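We include the pair:
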Amino acid sequence: MQRPSSVSRCLRLLSRIELEQKHCVYQTVNNSRVKSSIEGLTLQVISSSTGNNHNSSEAWEDTAALRDGKVSMGETMVSVAVVSTVSSSSSSSSSSNSRSSSSRRSNCSSSSSDGGGGGGTLIIVVVVVVVVVVVVVVAVIVVVVVVVVVVHVVVVVVVVVVVVVVVVVVVVVVVAEAEAAVASKAVAAVVVVVGGGG
């Protein structure tokens, strides 16, 4: 088997390996992460570096070596880790299958924001929008309640002030009238006394 000379060539070779299900594929080449999907393939390229230190292209033919190994592709060194279990190599129990499936789903969902968009990003956006809407609605309700309470308090204060002013005016008028009446009576009495004495 010839050594792969590019990432696409490498992934085409990997796509021939029989795995349990099709899931997310993350490939990192020269620190550039790309998200793609290949039929019947589940792997995660976790790191890469330039160099030709490991000439182990034969590992692509061995599904067990693909579990956690490094393969040289020309001048690009790629470290790969297969997320799924290889169905052709061993028959795992249903519990291990469920664990690997949940692990694959968590890997796909947790890394979906690195590539061309995914369900994880959409869920985060929806949650943020819902939280913002709820906060805005609660803030509007609080403002309306405060305004209503303040308006009621202002109205009550104005009514009380008006009533107090009216009472004070009435009292002042009544007192003034009373004082005027008493003064007029006193003046009349003095005139009568003075007139009578003359």
Notes: The longest strand covers residues 43-50. Residues 1-6, 17-117 have pLDDT under 50 and may be disordered.
